[in-house]
Amino acid sequence: MDSNKRNKLLEKRKSLKEIVRKKELKARIPYQIKYLEDNNLAYSLNYNHEFLLWMQAHFSIRKKDDYYGQHDYQIDIDKLNKNCKTVKYNDSSELQGIFESILLKNYPAHKEIVICKNGGDPELIVTIESLLSNFYLFSSAFEVWFILKDKSLVIEYISGVENLKIFKSNL
User: Fold this and answer.
1) Residue 8 falls within a domain, yes or no?
2) CB contact set of 160 (below 8 Å; sequence gap of 6+)
3) Tens digits of per-residue pLDDT, 107-143?
4) Residue 19 lies in a domain
């Protein structure tokens, strides 16, 4: 076999492996994908953890407690930072209203927001309107970060903590 044909076959194999990898990652968030597709809501997936890696580079992090997997870090948004605000809530039923007031008051509903979860799930990119149409479905993990696609706003939600950390970025 000549080297040109061999290289083409290697590229094809690499391409097929990437397709399988993306299919397996997409299968990690089936309920969110089904909801978006059933309601004809636009979305895209980021398979390379661009936003989690951006947060890792711009925020303080530490090793995640008792976890040693693909993403074995925990992101801590510095609550002492002047650009960070903490919003307390008493019950998770208040979260939808808090997110609506933060996002819709300051940004257009068609602006894209990235939903990031630790643990290897692909990053889901939807509009603010789509996020708020079924907020609890998209926030159904222990740790979720909502990042505007332009990286100007980060909202950290950790289940059971009863406060949100909101960071407005100048980056």
Assistant:
1) no
2) 142
3) 999 999 999 987 777 889 999 999 999 999 999 888 8
4) no
